[in-house]
């Protein structure tokens, strides 16, 4: 027996309706805000993520699922087997299963020259993601993200609308205790000077910080603030804050975002600890954090990334967006006691009795389905009693009883399970039955 790989999950029919509910709601809200869906491949060249996510991120440094390429590609690629048994190709010929949704959307936006077709672009995605992390509650190796991106504007209204969309979604799923934390992490004008201030603060602490922090000291010191290691965090509590060193443009942008959120009555906390795991963020950075302590607490993260499109090879086009984890969202909802209503699977069950009736039942089922009624028939040749019992179990509101006698007469009873009333309908003309079931649907 071969079991599922560690850190993956099967989504069984008993759970999948929750996914449908969330996906449908997310699509609906995206459409309310004027976003269009984009779908990208499950894997990309490794170099896309190295550039688009960033060399100093946990994702690129520790979590990439690098794929063993085909024989032809292997000839030109030198890979290294790592401890987990993955051959890691870190050069441009290697491929990586997508660890996040943004870099591929940016790649597709640039590659398809969509920037030439208008000034403002608004996309959403729902996608599987893969990260080679240590599995825990709310942290998987194969998981799903959904999110949005706006390309083409520096306006703080775009930051505000991105946050508003996430906030609308979170409130509509019923999560009232998920709090918005926002920060500004500056831009290439003000961050270099802040980095020097930060490095001066960090330098004497380096011996006490972990290897990853030490590695990030020269390349991207601000990322040290995002270290998950509690020993490192203990050293960093009085670190200087980026928001105290913002240039005039970034400071004004941050003030605008905050006042726009206030205008939309979206509550937030300024949290100088939000530096986000991805290298390409500029200005606004935010997270939606659950106060339920049952699992990983960040449900969603996002922000502005004005350098990303150019980094991936496109023109200088600013962007802003967020990503949300499906599994983590569902877990937070579950821990908060939010129930998603289970939809009715079937509206009609056809009880089939006898050899002739089988053929008629298939034809009758087709007539009801063509009229939009969800219909199931018996396949097991069970007794009438057993078929009724099954109809009760699946909570179907109507049954038809179709035996060889009914076939001879050309009419059959349609019975309401709730009150036991029944009407006679034609085998060849089910219109009366369809009308009855539809009238109940509408009521
Ligand atoms: P974390 O701090 O939890 O490691 P991150 O900074 O790596 O998060 P992002 O890259 O911003 O997360 O991803 C956006 C969202 O995707 C997260 O807020 C979370 O909901 C979800 N997510 C990220 N990694 C995982 C994972 N391994 N399993 C499940 N969901 C995840
Ligand atoms: Mg992470």
Tell me about this structure.
- It is an enzyme of class 6 (ligase).
- Its EC number is 6.1.1.21.
- InterPro entries: aa-tRNA-synth_II, aa-tRNA-synth_II/BPL/LPL, Anticodon-bd, Anticodon-bd_dom_sf, His-tRNA-ligase, HisRS-like_core, HisRS/HisZ, HisRS_anticodon.
- The chain is of the alpha+beta class and 443 residues long.
- The chain folds into two domains: 13-187 and 272-335, Bira Bifunctional Protein, Domain 2 (BirA Bifunctional Protein, domain 2), CATH 3.30.930.10; 348-442, 3-Layer(aba) Sandwich (Rossmann fold), CATH 3.40.50.800.
- It has helices spanning 13-32, 46-52, 58-63, 71-75, 102-111, 156-172, 191-202, 211-219, 230-235, 248-263, 308-311, 326-336, 355-370, 384-393, 404-409, 431-442, and strands at 36-37, 43-45, 66-67, 80-81, 87-88, 95-97, 121-130, 142-151, 178-184, 269-270, 282-290, 298-304, 319-325, 348-353, 375-377, 398-403, 411-416, 422-426.
- A hairpin with a 5-residue loop joins strand 4 and strand 5.
- Helix 1 (13-32) runs antiparallel to helix 6 (156-172) and helix 6 packs parallel to helix 10 (248-263).
- The longest helix has 20 residues, at 13-32.
- The two termini are 49 Å apart.
- The mean pLDDT is 92.
- The protein binds adenosine-5'-triphosphate (ATP) and magnesium ion.
- The site of magnesium ion has 2 residues, from loops.
